[in-house]
Amino acid sequence: QAKAMGHGSLRFFSPEMSRRAKERLALEADLRGALERGEFSLSYQPQVDLRSSELVGLEALIRWTHPVRGNVPPSVFIPLAEECGLIVELGDWILQTACRQIRRWTDAGLAPRHTAVNISAVQLSRGRLLDSVTSTLEKTGVAPEQLELEITESFVMLERELSFQSLADLRALGVSLSIDDFGTGYSSLSYLQQLKVHKLKIDMSFVRDMMKNSSNAGIVKAVIALGKSLGLEVIAEGVEDSDQAHYLRDLGCDVMQGYLVSKPLPDDEISKFLADFSKRKPIF
Ligand code: C2E
Ligand code: MG
Ligand code: MG
Ligand code: MG
Q: Which residues form the EAL domain (predicted)?
């Protein structure tokens, strides 16, 4: 907001606000150069089928190693990148990096069925996403079926017209679509049906204490039932212990992702994880 009003308006802020505004500007300035300096990387977190225990997918998650601040979490810099428009360029880099990695895994016989990439609302609304996905798949030789895109529920519900067309185009390309952080937005059921996405990801906040909190358990059950009735796959995020895994499996949830299986790992470690997974003891 300070930016929209012009830098001169900063002097009307309280010292604390001004300190925070400066901090933001500094971080934003660092963010602009971070891509060129090679400070970003992707980590990958496994997704495991709750019935067969097979490793069915991975989710790519961005990491920023700042030379001074160290690891800056995506919850801090993604919103900043969205506000300053950098997310479009960064989003292309994420897509390319993930697809190159998928290609290497495919060549090595290690690729899981799909790898999911998080897409920001801003990437969708700028309208270049379809071109970007199409050309990245072509350049890297990755099959559309190997790529999944995660879009948050709140965006899909806020920008109905826009997301409807963009998602239809992406679907036609053959990539699969999942709705991230499901349960936190206000989905209309009929709209959800029209969208024809493939998966729902139950938000971590409901999974976290569903064993103790009956209203969260109720939401988890409702999302699973909804997924079933619409013919969608349901993934639970943030599964940390085997009690949660068993509970979810008994409710009919299809896939889990969380620290129980593994934290997100950098590409060399996840490659080793993929190679060793079938030899491991069952996790739950
Ligand atoms: P998300 O897409 O819902 O990702 C799930 C987050 O939960 C990740 O945090 C992951 O590390 C964390 N997580 C996974 N399993 C567990 C668990 O068992 N326990 C706990 N406590 N946490 C778990 P992360 O990597 O910090 O990412 C946070 C959010 O930042 C993501 O939420 C996503 O919205 C955004 N983000 C991350 N990477 C990207 C990206 O490449 N592009 C875009 N546009 N957004 C990204
Ligand atoms: Mg996600
Ligand atoms: Mg999520
Ligand atoms: Mg999230």
A: 24-278
Is there a contact between 157 and 122 (Cβ–Cβ < 8 Å)? Answer: no
pTM of the complete model: 0.93
| Confidence label for 185 from pLDDT (cuts 50, 70 and 90) | confident
Count of beta carbons in the 10 Å neighbourhood of residue 184:
16
DSSP 283: -
Q: Nearest ligand to the C-alpha of residue 201?
A: 3
Among 41, 75, 118, 177, name the best residue to mutate to test ligand 1's pocket (greatest count of ligand atoms within 8 A of Cβ).
118
- ipTM of the predicted structure? 0.97
Q: Distance, CA 41 to ligand 2 centroid (Å)?
A: 16
Q: Is there a contact between 206 and 184 (Cβ–Cβ < 8 Å)?
A: no
* Three-state secondary structure call for residue 118: strand
β-strand 114-118 against 40-49: which pairing, if any?
unpaired
* Contact residues for 94 (Cβ-Cβ < 8 A; gap 6+): 42, 60, 62, 117, 118
- Both structure tokens of 84: 């300053």
